[in-house]
UniProtKB/TrEMBL annotation, chains A, B:
Pfam families: NUDIX, WHD_NrtR. GO terms for molecular function: hydrolase activity. Residues 16-154 form the Nudix hydrolase domain. The keyword Zinc does not apply. It comes from Yinghuangia soli. SUPFAM superfamilies: Nudix, Winged helix' DNA-binding domain. PROSITE patterns: NUDIX, NUDIX_BOX. Keywords: Hydrolase. Belongs to the Nudix hydrolase family. This is NUDIX hydrolase. PANTHER family: ADP-RIBOSE PYROPHOSPHATASE, SLR1690 PROTEIN. Residues 211-242 are annotated as: Disordered.
DNA sequence: CCAAAAGTGTTGGTACTACACCCATGC
DNA sequence: GCATGGGTGTAGTACCAACACTTTTGG
């Protein structure tokens, strides 16, 4: 309550916490949902895989910190990272989630198109960063397995009623590629004609690139290309099969 | 990234933050959506209304802190508060959101049935706590107006696809009362026969109390009574009128 | 009887599922 | 030609909004 708010910097007036961000970064590679993991070089959990993340700087919001960490981990230019899909997931604050000290972590979910493997961090203490299929993720450091599970749930749900699926695709994509995003994240197969109609019936979900087309599997009719549209929510929603 | 995680309690390894919870507590009184506000007794924002909230204790999760503050502000017994609807909204971390120091706040939304006016805090420095119609809320302290707006958006959306509406009702309620919850939060009128059918068609949303009935407006046929059912999500969703 | 609130029935339109079918390309 | 993937058409169904109607109470 307001009565407890500190009136200055008196260190007795509040408990000091460290605040971090953790990132669940998803992409689709070779028809499988992957997440970016880094391998810890120091205890606790040395050698364990963990979600990328880090401490908030002194005058930085959690979202700014998340974008900064994302740029560092993926090696993407900051300009590109600035308009990537980034959504606050939730905050994890169990007192014992970090064995060393009290750390409260704000988790974010990022959806990115297929990117090159992150450059090995030159001599850093995190010895590697790697895209890992979510199906093969083993035990993670801290409570990161729970964060990852929450992020997966939320991402699956968001596909139903928002346009975020396009964040997994390159700037120009085919409806078949967009459908594969849904099928991969949901682990379900969808009817192609109906998927197509629902997407095109949602105003602002995708906009056609006139005249452009691309062969996908080497064979078959070249598919028309689309770009992400201006809409962010999906009316009506594209519901998962039961 | 993991490399930046502190290896011990070295105060130079991380920026110290204060962590608080803020609560957007909603109830329905006399057909209007109300929120619980407290009046600040000290600067900054002395005399301004603010959301209830407070600092995390040393070994307490954000949700535990939110329930503790909720019990303190509403005067409800802890046992009752333990199973009230409480949902993490999001975390607010702008560097300047508190003029005195760096404070990161985890916001929660709570939905409660109609309660008595909170007892005046005996000689505390927060001089009053009061239920206020959301339509008449003026400027608030800190970024609490933004938190309240986010909480309203989320609550309206959650009514569509979850069963939380029953949290606004007493243990036994009529379908008319449940419908008023939707109409009040959404600011829309619904068709009674269709509302009734949708609610009863959602398995586990409500369970009938056999034989029980109650007069609502003094006149008219007494309405059957229902209790909250075991379900938490609504299939199919109960969508807002466009 | 009348007003008010609860509850039931019916109907027309919309939207969606599940298919069958046609088109364009590589081999 | 045939396999493969893109794209169109359509019939049956399920759902849903709108509104007419019946029931039960108080005055």
């Amino acid at each position: 309550m307001a009565a407890e708010r500190p009136e200055g910097y008196d260190p007795r007036a509040f408990e000091p916490f460290a605040v971090t961000v953790d990132l669940a970064v998803f992409t689709i590679r070779a028809g499988q949902l992957h997440t970016l993991l880094i391998r810890r070089g120091e205890p606790p959990y040395a050698g364990r895989w963990a979600l990328p993340g880090g401490f908030l700087h002194a005058r930085e919001s959690a979202e700014d910190a998340a974008r900064r960490e994302l740029a560092e981990e993926t090696g993407l230019p900051d300009a590109l990272v600035a308009d990537l899909q980034l959504e606050q997931l939730r905050t994890y604050s169990a007192p014992d989630r970090d064995p060393r000290m009290r750390v409260v972590s704000v988790a974010y979910t990022a959806l990115v198109p297929d990117l090159p493997e992150p450059a090995a961090s030159g001599g850093g203490d995190a010895d590697q960063a790697r895209w890992t299929p979510v199906a093969t993720v083993g035990p993670l450091a801290f409570d990161h397995a729970a964060i990852l599970a929450d992020a997966l749930d939320r991402t699956g749900a968001k596909l139903e009623y928002t346009c975020v699926a396009t964040a997994f695709c390159p700037p120009e994509f085919t409806l078949g590629e967009l459908q594969q995003v849904y099928e991969t994240v949901w682990g379900a197969t969808l009817d192609r004609p109906n998927f197509r109609r629902k997407v095109l019936a949602s105003p602002g979900f995708v906009t056609p690139v006139p005249g452009a087309s691309r062969l996908t599997g080497g064979r078959g009719k070249p598919a028309a290309l689309y770009r992400r549209g201006p809409a962010t929510t999906l009316h009506p929603p594209l519901l998962r099969p039961r």
